[in-house]
Design a protein that fits this description.
It is a single chain. Helices cover about 40% and strands about 15% of the residues. The chain is of the alpha+beta class. Strand 5 and strand 6 form a beta hairpin.
C-alpha cells in the first residue's frame, strides 16, 4: 500500500499533464480569428464585432488585441462605468468576478439593452463588454453611461504579458518607460497581489491609454493572439 500511493500520484500527475498538453494543442489548432476593424452589421445602432470574434476575444483574454481595439479611430461603441461594481462574464460558467471602477471605459461586444422592437429599455438589459486588460464581463445598462468623463479610467494591464514588440513600441514613450519601471519595483517590493501593485498597474494602464489616444504607434496585429 505504501508503494502504491506514490505510483498512483505519479500516474495522476502524468494524466493531468497529458490532458493539459491536449487542451493546449487543440487551442493552437483552432482556426485563427482576425482582430476586427469593422462592425459586424453596418448601420446597426451599436457597432460591435460578430459572434465568432466575441467568442475568441473572451476566450483568449488578449491584452494585445484589446489595446488595438481601444485605439482612437476604431468604430466600437465606448461606454463608461457609473460606480464601482463587481461583475462576471455571463458567457462562461467558470468566469470569476471582476472589480470595475467608476469612469472605466469599456467597449461593447454584445448589446442586449434594446427590445426586439428596437425600443431602448432604460435601466434594463445588459451588455457584454471588453475591458482594457482583454477580459470580458457583463454589465447592466443601469451601471453605464455614454458620455466620456474628463479623466476616464482603464482596467489595469499585466505589462509582462503584452507581446514584446508591443512593449518595445510603447517604451518609446519616456513616460511609459518611467511608469513601467515604477510598476516593476512596487510589485517586486509589495508582491504581485498587493493593493500597491494593483495601483501601479492601474497607473500604467492609464498612461498607456493616454499615449494611445495621443497617437502612440504600436505594431499592427492581424489575428487575435
Amino acid at each position: 500500500m505504501t508503494t502504491f500511493r506514490p505510483l498512483f500520484r505519479r500516474a495522476m500527475t502524468l494524466v493531468t499533464a497529458l490532458i493539459a498538453i491536449a487542451v493546449s494543442c487543440a487551442a493552437s489548432a483552432a482556426p485563427q480569428v482576425e482582430i476586427p476593424r469593422e462592425c459586424a452589421k453596418p448601420g446597426a445602432a451599436t457597432c460591435a464585432p460578430d459572434k465568432r470574434v466575441v467568442k475568441r476575444l473572451c476566450q483568449r483574454k488578449s491584452q494585445d488585441a484589446a489595446l488595438r481595439m481601444f485605439k482612437p479611430g476604431t468604430p466600437w461603441k465606448r461606454l463608461y462605468i457609473r460606480d464601482n461594481i463587481e461583475t462576471r462574464y455571463s458567457g462562461s460558467r467558470y468566469a470569476k468576478r471582476q472589480a470595475l471602477r467608476t469612469a472605466e471605459q469599456v467597449l461593447v461586444l454584445v448589446d442586449r439593452a434594446q427590445s426586439k422592437g428596437g425600443m431602448t429599455v432604460s435601466g434594463y438589459g445588459n451588455y457584454d463588454v471588453l475591458r482594457f486588460n482583454g477580459h470580458c464581463t457583463t454589465v447592466m445598462a443601469s451601471d453605464l453611461f455614454q458620455f466620456r468623463p474628463t479623466v476616464p479610467d482603464f482596467a489595469p494591464i499585466r505589462w509582462t504579458r503584452l507581446k514584446s514588440k508591443t512593449r518595445k513600441a510603447l517604451l518609446k514613450s519616456k513616460g511609459i518607460t518611467w511608469r513601467a519601471g515604477i510598476r516593476k519595483n512596487i510589485c517586486k517590493s509589495y508582491g504581485k497581489r498587493s493593493l500597491e501593485c494593483e495601483g501601479a498597474r492601474l497607473d500604467l494602464a492609464r498612461l498607456v491609454a493616454e499615449r494611445l489616444h495621443k497617437g502612440q504607434a504600436i505594431p499592427i496585429l492581424k489575428f487575435i493572439p
